[in-house]
Write a structure and sequence with these properties.
The chain has 109 residues and is of the alpha/beta class. It is built from 5 helices and 5 strands; from the N terminus they run E-H-E-H-E-H-E-H-H-E. Helix 1 packs across helix 4.
């Protein structure tokens, strides 16, 4: 099974649209009913559905450092990377890594 993604509420909807154009499975915070939910709720949703969480929020890096389990985190600093570059890097992760290789790891986009 290929990597699937979950985008937190701060990631542009254009990223989701770009992934979907390439037939990559992705959910968004709004679609999952998680608008305004806690970071723990987001990471638990992504982990329970086997999705790599994509975020600008460095709170998720702290959760990772504190040993909270997850299916993987794709992280980039807000406004440091264009939508196109985020999309290219997520496609690369999708094409090169397995869900098992991403589990419990952080990839800096």
């Amino acid at each position: 099974m290929p990597i699937r993604f979950h985008l937190d509420e701060h990631i542009s909807a254009q990223v989701a649209a770009g992934l979907r154009r390439r037939n990559i499975d992705v959910t968004t915070t709004a679609e999952a009913g998680l608008i305004g939910a806690s970071d723990i709720a987001h990471i638990e949703y992504a982990a329970s559905s086997g999705r790599v969480l994509v975020t600008h929020d460095d709170d998720f890096l702290r959760l990772h450092a504190n040993g909270v389990g997850h299916a993987g985190i794709g992280y980039c600093q807000q406004r440091s990377t264009s939508v196109g570059e985020i999309l290219r890097r997520l496609i690369l992760i999708h094409d090169l890594l397995s869900p098992e290789e991403m589990a419990g790891k952080v990839e800096f986009l």
